Amino acid sequence: MTAPRALLDRLWSAHEIVLREDGSSLLWVDRHLVHEGSHHAFAKLAARKASVAEPELTFAVVDHYAPTRERDKGLAPQIAYMIDTLRKNAANHGLKLFDLRDPGQGIVHVVGPEQGLTLPGLLINCGDSHTSTHGAFGALAFGIGATEVAHVLATQTIWQKKPAAMRISIDGELGPGVSAKDIALNWIARLGADGAQGHAIEYAGSAVRSLSMEGRMTLCNLSIEGGARFGMIAPDETTFAYVKGRAHAPRGLAWEAALNDWSELASDEDAEFDRDIHLDGSEIAPTVTWGTSPEHAIPVTSTIPDPETLANGKAQAVRDALDYMGLPAGHPIQGTPVDQVFIGSCTNGRIEDLRHAAAVLSGRRAKVSGLVSPGSALVKTQAEQEGLDRIFIDAGLEWAASGCSMCVGMNGDLVEPGKRCASSTNRNFRGRQGPGALTHLMSPAMVAAAAVTGTITDVRPLLKGRAI
Amino acid sequence: MSGWTKHSGQAVALPFHNIDTDQLIPSRFMSTPRSEGYGRFLLHDLRRDESGSEHPHFPLNRHKDTSIVVAGRNFGSGSSREAAVYALVDAGIRAVFAPSFGDIFSGNAVNNGLLPALIQDADFELLLRALGDASRPAHVCLDARHISIDGTTIGFQIDPGRRTKLINGWDDIDLTMQHAAAIGQHKRRLDSHAPWVRPVTERTGS
Q: Please, are residues A164 and A275 in contact by the beta-carbon 8 Å criterion?
């Protein structure tokens, strides 16, 4: 009898070419996604006079520096330089490029799935930490650094030590106005921002099975914020229905063969995990961050921590975070005034996210300014067909083009120093949205609620009588 | 990249947790070609005020000859930007000691000859006390896996494969090319056994 295997074991062994004595595996890479930030890696490749080993498995996307406003006007020199460098590298190596004007352009972690490049059972690399997103399809997907990107470009393989297996099971039904974002912030607050380091997380349980692919991608996307390089969910009918018919997805006989292979992508019932964590979905409230790490997350109904009540080791970190965020210790987080809002990013820039925010904003006016940047040009088009753009514009928010935008600010979409932003993004790090920016992470629906009231607010009363 | 086994230099403490890669190098500097040097960007917004002047109290501003850093848990978390390692290396840092590191950061560090040395929480506290807010001579030995500061010696952990790589200064691409036959075999097996794996393109699409 063979030992019970976890999804991680199945995916790992299917890609392992060499297992070295020190425990490192050489893994085959099925898809490699690159973006403007990959310029260091292309420079390393050029320095070796090497070429891309598998151009047909390598896809380039303009996202980190993509302008979201007045795209047709002249670009700032630094931004134009970064985008042109990617264009040249893609052209030199014969890579398919989703350029600014491509109807498929968008954030790399939105584009991969919606183009059918992301499939169950694949190993997917990208020089971006949120590559864990693609694990939502039952893929082995992880972010890598520039030296590793150069290695994948040159060899279509990557050295990696197999992580420990961890399972986070979420059972029970999520309440109205509670989403995958809230699940993620909850486990990160519980285990810490380094809580899952060295682990690959498999998300399981009835609450995860009930999530759409969009929700599953949000959950897997945020794995890295709890320290895990990998997040994954066993594929099921929801997954297959999402993938079928997409531009680069298998068709005909290949589709039948794929379904057959994908049906085996699950953990055995008696598979053992190095760590097993359980959450009750029905106990999760809409959640917001108060500090400068994603682990600084609390239910919106709760109070900001008070360093005076904490042990010495933790007190100083809380004090520093509150000092940066300009928040009073021990006060309710609800009612904290915000200066602006942002809806978008690889975490929460998909169609379902925009629908959630629109459900709150419909027929209402925002009290503060805000930017809505769909995760891709396809998401933008679909949202416009559904009339969501009108809801955002009528509420007084700006409807912009797609890119990483105000999540990381590389394209110039910045939060000004000292301004407080309710944001559907993934990192509330100091200065992440711009020097001195104050970021509160929350779900798109919660961001919409903050827009309507001008303060951090529990979205649930605003959803009464509305479908989400 | 050249390997190393021993390093002697000046150590300072950065007694903060969660020093993420956005703090190590803010994203606005990342379009700079590496040849221009990244050292001046290291911890830029923590070290400088809005006008660009250095905060005189910040440890790395007081001790410019630092090559060893002792920092709080979750060092290098967040973004995969290897530029965070370039900033450290170009500023002369050879080793970082912390109770935990971002997984992607650790790999990036080793790929650039920078040691991410994992230490116990108690030893972190011990090193903080030994250093205070001063800069002290320290000695790192990769073979013995320990650091000595002023007579205090503590051990650290690092994955054995990564330690070997640091010591030898190996380049992964050269190592991988030795497995070219096995890679080719894997690719051929994939093409014959899992035809759905290759993406449908305009050329292959029906």
A: yes
Taking CB atoms and an 8 Å cut-off, how many pairs form between chains A and B? 194
Q: Which residues lie closer than 8 Å to B83 by C-beta, 6 or more apart?
A: A40, A146, B21, B25, B29, B30, B38, B41
Alpha carbons within 13 angstroms on the beta-carbon side of residue A66 total 29
Residue B118 within a domain? yes
DSSP A304-315: ---GGGS-HHHH
Is A429 close to B104, i.e. CB distance below 8 A? Answer: no
Interface membership of A417 toward B (CB under 8 Å): yes
Using CB atoms and an 8 Å cut-off, which of residues 50-69 of chain A contact chain B? 50, 56-57, 65
Chain B hits for A116, Cβ within 8 Å: 199-200
Q: A312 and A205 in contact (C-beta within 8 Å)?
A: no
> Residue A448 in contact with residue A112, Cβ under 8 Å?
no
Contact B196 A22 (CB under 8 A): no
**Nearby residues of A6 by Cβ (< 8 Å), 6 or more positions away:** A165, A167, A202, A267, A268, A271, A272, A273
Q: Show Cβ contacts of residue A289 under 8 Å, excluding neighbours closer than 6 positions.
A: A185, A296, A297, A298, A428, A439, A440, A441, A442
Number of domains in chain B: 1
Radius of gyration of chain A (CA): 21
Distance CA A75, CA A79 (A): 6
| DSSP-assigned letter for residue A451 | H
User: Residue B60 belongs to what domain range?
Assistant: 6-170
**Domains defined for chain A, CATH in brackets:** 7-275 (3.30.499.10), 289-463 (3.30.499.10)
Contact B146, B121 (CB under 8 A): no
ipTM for this model? 0.96
Grouped pLDDT means (10 residues each) for chain B, 206 residues: 94 97 96 94 96 95 97 97 98 98 98 98 95 97 96 95 93 93 97 94 54
3 state SS of B147: strand
Enter the DSSP assignment of B132: T
Q: A97 CB near a chain B CB, below 8 Å?
A: no
* Residue B123's CATH number: 3.20.19.10
Please name the member of A159, A193, A436 whose beta carbon is closest to the beta carbon of B18: A193
Give residue-wise pLDDT tens across range A94-133. 999 999 999 999 999 999 999 999 999 999 999 999 999 9
Does A145 reach chain B within 8 Å, measured CB to CB?
yes
Q: Are B6 and B94 in contact (CB under 8 A)?
A: no
B161 vs A146, A161, A435: nearest CB: A161
Task: Tell me whether residue B188 is in a domain.
Answer: no
